[in-house]
Design a protein that fits this description.
By secondary structure, this protein is α/β, with parallel strands linked by helices. 33% of the residues lie in helices and 27% in strands. The chain has a single domain, classed as Alpha-Beta Complex (Spore Coat Polysaccharide Biosynthesis Protein SpsA, Chain A), CATH 3.90.550.10. The protein is built from 7 helices and 11 strands.
């Protein structure tokens, strides 16, 4: 079985104190629901575990019921860090799960096709991480807003979610994180820590993350809401 873990426990500090971006309105639905519906429609996903802030569990349950997200099997509370939230979700997976796709609930424009591509990559190579190639010229600045050098952009990619992995690989990486008390910003970084190759899956720039009010406007335009 393939399990999707949707993490929606982050606060949007750029939008104001304690704003829960996953539950902001985007068109007629909360931001989070668009990701839930994409996972619902993806034939490669068998079940979904939703991770939200403790005080949002009931709101999440209502949204799941209202929009018919039948693949959501459990809704659990997250932690103070992303890796804790993901670990909490993984702890709820059934023994039969072999592949895991982790997705940020603040990326509402994700498609079922992209989810499926990351799962297929993970099945074949052990990992499948959505990413897009950087096309802008990138400058490195050390201090005082002075450019120190131009970075070779031909080797640079911006990583997104979903990030899919074989279960045993992700569990091993998270065990190392806990043992060494490390902090990572995404699951691919955790896999890198155990010296495993991480394979990228070409994505689209439309798979944006909601972090500012302008992102809501852009997402609505992309989805023609």
């Amino acid at each position: 079985m393939n399990c999707g873990i949707i993490v929606a426990g982050g606060r949007a500090q750029r939008m104001g104190p304690d704003v829960d971006k996953a539950f902001l309105s985007l068109g007629s639905k909360p931001v989070l629901v668009y990701s839930l519906m994409a996972f619902e429609k993806c034939t490669e996903i068998d079940e979904v575990i939703l991770v939200v802030r403790k005080e949002r569990v009931e709101s999440a349950r209502c949204a799941v019921q209202m929009f018919g997200c039948t693949k959501v099997k459990k809704i659990v509370a997250g932690g103070t860090q992303r890796q804790i939230s993901v670990a909490n979700g993984m702890a709820e997976m059934g023994e039969e799960v072999t592949l895991v796709a982790v997705h940020d609930g603040a990326r509402p424009c994700v498609t079922s096709a992209l989810i499926a591509e990351t799962i297929r990559s993970a099945r074949q190579y052990g990992s499948g991480v959505a990413a897009i190639k950087i096309t802008d010229t990138v400058k490195e600045v050390e201090k005082d807003m002075i450019i120190s050098r131009t970075v070779d952009r031909t080797k640079l990619w911006r990583v997104q979610t979903p990030q899919a992995f074989k279960r045993e690989l992700l569990e091993k990486a998270f065990a190392v994180i806990r043992k060494k008390k490390l902090t990572v910003t995404d699951e691919a970084s955790a896999i890198e820590l155990i010296s495993r190759a991480v394979r990228l899956v070409p994505s689209s720039s439309s798979n944006i993350k909601i972090t500012t009010p302008d992102d809501l406007v852009l997402a609505a335009a992309l989805m023609r809401l």
